[in-house]
Write a structure and sequence with these properties.
The protein has a 6-stranded mixed beta sheet, sandwiched between helices. The longest helix has 20 residues, at 19-38. It is built from 4 helices and 6 strands, in the order ααβαββββαβ. Helix 4 links the parallel strand 5 (93-97) and strand 6 (118-121). The chain has helices spanning 2-13, 19-38, 49-58, 101-113; strands at 41-45, 63-66, 75-76, 79-83, 93-97, 118-121. The protein has 123 residues and is α/β, with parallel strands linked by helices. The two termini are 24 Å apart.
Length: 123
């Protein structure tokens, strides 16, 4: 049964070597829907492996965000990359954290300090 289920997932979401990667995709897909519906602007924090894996579900983000000093100012798959200090802060903003687990809480705290309350950690 598991092989058949994984086959269905692979047909819908592409091949992923680890089961937890499908879980990430489901969470990011849900978070992106919430952000599209509820926020004027929404961002994806991260441009690494996790963001790359989740790109098909977040490619319409306003921009990608990275920590200050980590390469803001360029583009990632055609979208602007902002440094954290450039990020707008208002109640109309949502941020999805497409980061490794070890960075999620740290970045969420930085965003909270900046006044951003609508943060979605993918698990």
């Amino acid at each position: 049964y598991l092989r058949e289920i994984l086959g269905w997932f692979t047909e819908s979401y592409g091949f992923h070597g680890q089961l937890h990667e499908f879980k990430e995709i489901f969470h990011v897909q849900q978070a992106a829907e919430v952000c599209r519906t509820n926020y004027r602007k929404w961002y994806v924090y991260g441009t690494g492996e996790t963001a790359q894996r989740c790109l098909p579900w977040v490619q319409d983000t306003s921009a990608f965000v990275v920590s200050d000093g980590h390469g803001g100012g360029g583009t990632f798959h055609g979208r602007p990359v902002l440094s954290l200090s450039e990020l707008e802060t208002d109640e109309e903003t949502g941020v999805i954290l497409c980061l490794g687990e070890e960075y999620r809480d740290v970045v969420a705290a930085l965003l909270e300090e900046k006044g951003i309350r609508h943060v979605y950690k993918i698990r």
